[in-house]
Design brief:
CATH topology of chain B: Rossmann fold
Strand content of chain B: 25-35%
Order of helices and strands of chain B: EEEHEEHHHEHEHEEHH
Number of strands of chain B: 9
Shape of chain B: globular
CATH topology of the largest domain in chain A: Arc Repressor Mutant, subunit A
Protein name (chain B): ABC transporter ATP-binding protein
Number of domains of chain B: 1
CATH class of chain B: Alpha Beta
Distance between the termini of chain A: 24 Å
Distance between the termini of chain B: 33 Å
Oligomer: heterodimer
Radius of gyration of chain A: 17 Å
GO molecular function (chain B): ATP binding
Number of helices of chain A: 5
Helix content of chain B: 25-40%
Keywords (chain B): ATP-binding, Nucleotide-binding
Number of strands of chain A: 5
CATH class of the largest domain in chain A: Mainly Alpha
Strand content of chain A: 5-15%
InterPro entries (chain A): Tscrpt_reg_HTH_GntR, WH-like_DNA-bd_sf, WH_DNA-bd_sf
Organism (chain B): Paenibacillus profundus
Radius of gyration of chain B: 17 Å
């Protein structure tokens, strides 16, 4: 599916994987990266479903999960907003970083790299990705 | 787990020698968008007509929203047939008048806003319409009804891209407003698979595979690739 821009967020959905997880992860990273600011309003379920051409049930499920994590809050008759609590966002950001590091280590270990090899590789790269 | 909207048990329906439905058993969840997928002749339209109470099974049982389909259940079902029939000389507006008098739960205001959303001219004669315009009008009449079950038989086939996009937008809009069970039969899987919560793959009057779309995606990939594997 093509890249879709809406409400400061970017989405790119792959129909071969669960859409709900992709919508959720992509909003979470938009929040972590600061693409949507604290307290900012996010698109309604209808708007996002329309923009992504997906069933509103999928968007609703992702929104419920964000709300459970306290990353968003719904104000009656006004819509859904990103939390104003910077600590919550920082926690989510750290969680995402930890997950990424964990995945990286698992991958490296699975191809036989030791901690020393990994350190050396990171130094060679000079901290530049790709 | 959600409630069951449609329960079909061991249905057989014959047309001459051919079994259009052949020991067909399925339970479909309520308030979900269900894609009924399969090639022409798989039995999709027969299944829809049976849900709408237009035909009866030779064997087996079917219940829809907890009842046997018939004229009593039809006030709860909006059915988009695979072919249109219009009255001679009707315009779009007159077709809406007709629907308002005849169809339970028909909301005139909703119909009129759908007409303009669908880009239809109220004064247009129904007999001069293109297939795309016809499909948009039929869908408008179905979706303007406030009913718990919407049956759309091949809403995307043989119509132009823009009509198809409009129809998909209208379906998404409608779903955002209503808690409705929607069944959509199609063989245009690529354009429509992101709309579905649940799918049924049919072939030769039987169920090949069915389930929650997100679970199927996690286990086997896109509906399009599953379709290719199943019907190869």
């Amino acid at each position: 599916m093509n890249e879709v821009h809406i409400g400061g967020m970017r989405f790119e959905l792959d129909l071969s994987k669960p859409l709900y997880e992709q919508v959720l992860t992509q909003i979470r990273s938009s929040i972590a990266k600061g693409e949507i600011a604290l307290g900012e309003k996010i698109p309604s379920v209808r708007e996002l479903a329309q923009a992504l051409k997906i069933t509103p049930n999928t968007v609703m499920r992702a929104y419920q999960e964000l709300e459970r994590d306290r990353l968003t809050e719904t104000r009656r008759g006004q819509g859904t907003f990103i939390t104003t609590n910077a600590d919550t966002v920082e926690t989510i950001r750290n969680n995402l970083a930890e997950e990424a590091v964990q995945e990286f280590f698992e991958k490296m270990h699975s191809i036989g790299f030791t901690w020393d090899d990994i350190q050396q590789l990171i130094r060679q790269k000079g901290g530049n990705p790709s | 787990m959600s409630e069951i909207a449609i329960r079909a048990e061991n249905i057989v329906k014959r047309y001459g020698q051919k079994r259009a439905l052949d020991d067909f058993t399925i339970h479909l969840p309520q308030e979900r968008v269900v894609g009924v997928l399969g090639s022409n002749g798989a039995g999709k339209s027969t299944f829809f007509r049976m849900i709408a109470g237009l035909i009866q099974p030779d064997h087996g049982t079917i219940d829809v929203l907890g009842r046997t389909p018939g004229w009593q259940t039809n006030r709860d079902i909006a059915y988009l047939p695979d072919r249109a029939r219009w009255y001679e000389g009707h315009t779009v507006m007159l077709a809406l008048d007709w629907a308002e008098h005849l169809l339970p739960g028909f909301e005139r205001q909703r119909a009129e806003s759908l007409i303009s959303f669908m880009g239809l001219d109220p004064e247009m004669k129904v007999h001069g319409m293109s297939r795309g315009q016809e499909a948009r009008l039929m869908l408008t009449i179905c979706m303007a009804r406030s009913v718990p079950l919407l049956l759309l038989d091949e809403p995307f086939s043989g119509i132009d891209l823009l009509s198809r996009e409009r129809i998909i937008e209208a379906i998404i809009d409608n779903l955002s407003d209503n808690r409705q069970t929607v069944l959509i039969s199609t063989h245009e899987i690529h354009e429509s698979e992101s709309l579905f919560d649940h799918v049924v793959f049919m072939d030769n009057g039987q169920v090949l595979l069915h389930g929650d779309v997100e679970m199927l995606r996690a286990e086997q990939g896109s509906m399009e690739s599953i379709y290719r594997t199943l019907y190869r």
